[in-house]
Amino acid sequence: MKPTVYEGTMASAILVTGGAGYVGSHTVASILERETAPDFEIVVVDNLTNAYRAEGHKKPEAIRIIEELTNKKISFYELDLSDKQGLSKIFEKHSIECVIHFAALKAVGESVQKPLEYYQANITGTCTLLEVMRSYGVFKLVYSSSCTVYGEPERLPIDEGHETGRGLTSPYGKSKYFCEEIMKDLCTSDQRWKIISLRYFNPVGAHRSGRIGEDPAGIPNNLMPFIAQVAVGRLPELMVFGNDYPTVDGTGVRDYIHVEDLADGHVKAVRLFQQPGFSGFHAVNLGTGTGYSVLQMIAAFKSASGRDIPYRIVGRRAGDIAANYADVSLSHRLLAWRATRTLEDMCADTWRWQSNNPQGFKSS
Ligand SMILES: NC(=O)c1ccc[n+]([C@@H]2O[C@H](COP(=O)([O-])OP(=O)(O)OC[C@H]3O[C@@H](n4cnc5c(N)ncnc54)[C@H](O)[C@@H]3O)[C@@H](O)[C@H]2O)c1
């Protein structure tokens, strides 16, 4: 028989915080595409600070489209994680078995300007969630962490044994590190907790349907959405920060991972909760193990889209590192997961999403 994502009680629910956002929505899609249990449900909580809901609709666009694509219903609550009472009501109403926690603010530069807002949303929000989980006897959590917790790499590829927390420059990166530390302490204090912290490398790409994808508000912070917006004519040119790094062509190298592979990694993490004897805190890298430079990304996108990508080399950006890519052996061993999609897939899927939806979800 095909394994379901979650073989819990009859009416099991997975709570997905931030499920209307980029990685969260693709994970919700991936779970629903695989889940076969009849009474299983997905419950999404999102305050819509970084997700779009069209006028007159109850659910954000990403959620509405996933319902269309999968022909399954998703329970949606517009709620901020700091609303402990509201969150408790959701735990009263649904039979929640485990939580996948995406909700956070994520713009590194903005976090330097607004540290309190970032600590409030990312750390206090996480503590509130953990408190409510504990009071309802829910001890299984998959957490969205980041390779940012490693700071400047001492070795490459970076494995999970690499030190974390040293030399972190942004409140965003620190918030991810602090949350991991809080979760480790929690697991030490109470053996019932099972927490998997997934350290993402650089998520890119879009659902293969081209109907959901990354939809950054304002000027994108990340390379791929920036390239895509240049290709579609929304932005005039790309700025490449530095071409004098000790890398293959002087530009920064990162480990890009297709968001659908990343989403599948969450499905595998949820399945791991069912393994007898599994408990405690586990940090796992999700990447491909291969790095590509900025110029290699531009070339790949140009070929996938057939569009020219005008770019200009400018000086290095403070805080950027030369290269970063993951040691992915633990994800293979522990999660039985590996990324299967190629750089061509990442570019083709991003382009399908961007060219079908030049203004993001507002176009759909
Ligand atoms: N995308 C990346 O490059 C990347 C890399 C590493 C880690 N992460 C982490 O993955 C998670 C998801 O990232 P994403 O790219 O999908 O971001 P996103 O902004 O698209 O999604 C986050 C969602 O959470 C919601 N949200 C934010 N604060 C909230 C709060 N206090 N209460 C309720 N909802 C709230 C937003 O409205 C949004 O829909 C984040 O925790 C992020 O830090 C992302």
From TrEMBL:
Return the broad EC class: isomerase
Lineage, top-rank taxon, reads: Eukaryota
**Record-level Gene Ontology MF annotations:** UDP-glucose 4-epimerase activity; UDP-N-acetylglucosamine 4-epimerase activity
InterPro entries assigned: Epimerase_deHydtase (IPR001509), NAD(P)-bd_dom_sf (IPR036291), UDP_G4E (IPR005886)
GO terms, biological process:
galactose catabolic process via UDP-galactose, Leloir pathway
Query: Which is one Gene Ontology cellular component term of this protein?
Result: cytosol
Q: Catalysed reaction per UniProt?
A: UDP-N-acetyl-alpha-D-glucosamine = UDP-N-acetyl-alpha-D-galactosamine; UDP-alpha-D-glucose = UDP-alpha-D-galactose
Keyword terms: Carbohydrate metabolism, Galactose metabolism, Isomerase, NAD
Reported cofactor(s): NAD(+)
**Gene3D superfamilies attached to this UniProt entry:** NAD(P)-binding Rossmann-like Domain (3.40.50.720), UDP-galactose 4-epimerase, domain 1 (3.90.25.10)
Which EC numbers characterise this protein's activity in its record?
5.1.3.2
**Any idea where the NAD-dependent epimerase/dehydratase domain is?**
14-272
Pathway annotation: Carbohydrate metabolism; galactose metabolism
| Quaternary organization | Homodimer.
Which family is this sequence assigned to? Answer: Belongs to the NAD(P)-dependent epimerase/dehydratase family.
Put simply, this protein is called: UDP-glucose 4-epimerase
Q: What is the lineage of its organism?
A: Eukaryota, Metazoa, Ecdysozoa, Arthropoda, Hexapoda
What's the name of its gene? LOC111350868
